[in-house]
Specification:
- This protein has two domains: about 110 residues, Archaeosine Trna-guanine Transglycosylase, Chain: A, domain 4 (Roll), CATH 2.30.130; about 130 residues, Methane Monooxygenase Hydroxylase, Chain G, domain 1 (Up-down Bundle).
- It has a five-stranded mixed β-barrel.
- α2 packs antiparallel against α3, α2 runs parallel beside α6 and α4 runs parallel beside α6.
- The model has no long low-confidence stretch (mean pLDDT about 90).
- About 45% of the residues lie in helices and about 20% in strands.
- By secondary structure, the protein is an alpha+beta fold.
Length: about 250
């Protein structure tokens, strides 16, 4: 990705998008996400979108604490999204509902003064072996069921919804969006254009997470048993003291 340019004479206007940097979230194609926007540049980018009925490029910044990230502090791969709903709140922030449409990579920034604006290219998915994709998709669905059973943060309805998705790219992105993993790992999945490669990475991440969640579950069970044993011993001791007091009084 090149530096910001001042001479914007040679660029394709159809590939220019206002850019919305995000903290702590990666938006995948197919996702509908509510976002709360408070930064002045981001609000101006949304106003630009609403004025010309454009799409917006949502990208994740590398450091969530950075209030005014420079282009090199924003990941190069993002998602072109449409703005479904925009609501200005009394405190000056904006609540916006966006729908991810296509993966895209930023080629160059055209301006960063009033708001971020960049020229971007949609990333086309390469052809994959259909049999391999089907096998990977089935494995991912099965593994996701196991993952959800261990991770209580994800509702069972999500598993039912995932099982109904026939488009394998959308399946991979939907599972990826629900995994409780690092932002950098989600960004890696977003930048992985090949569906087969993406599903393989998702399977690897889920296997690793399931291993950790199983250990956590065993630890919780052990702690619970120890607490129950301690409580039983405490009650028995209290009962013995009460009986001894009664006998002493007699």
């Amino acid at each position: 990705m090149s530096d910001v340019i001042s001479d914007a004479a040679e660029f394709d206007r159809d590939r220019v998008y206002p850019v919305l940097p995000l903290r702590d979230i990666v938006v995948f194609p197919g996702m509908i996400v509510p976002l709360f926007v408070g930064r002045e540049k981001s609000v101006k980018a949304l106003e630009e979108v609403m004025r010309d009925d454009k799409h917006i490029l949502v990208v994740t910044q590398k450091n969530a604490q950075d209030d005014d990230p420079s282009p090199d502090q924003i990941y190069a791969t993002g998602t072109i999204a449409s703005v479904l709903q925009l609501l200005k709140l009394p405190d000056g922030t904006v609540k916006v509902l966006v729908e991810g449409l296509h993966r895209a990579t930023i080629d160059r920034y055209l301006q960063t003064v009033d708001y971020f604006e960049a020229e971007a290219s949609v990333l086309a998915e390469p052809e994959n072996d259909a049999v391999e994709i089907e096998a990977l998709a089935r494995s991912a669905q099965t593994e996701f069921e196991s993952y959800v059973k261990l991770n209580k943060k994800i509702s069972a309805e999500v598993v039912a919804a995932v099982s109904q998705i026939e488009n394998r790219s959308k399946l991979a992105d939907t599972i990826a969006s629900h995994l409780v993993i690092k932002i950098s790992e989600k960004e890696d999945l977003l930048s992985t254009v090949s569906v087969a490669e993406r599903l393989q990475k998702i399977l690897g991440l889920m296997e690793g997470e399931i291993g950790v969640l199983q250990v956590e579950k065993r630890i919780r069970s052990r702690v619970k048993r120890q607490m129950e044993k301690t409580q039983r011993e405490y009650y028995l001791n209290e009962q013995m003291k009460a009986i001894q007091r009664e006998l002493g009084d007699g």
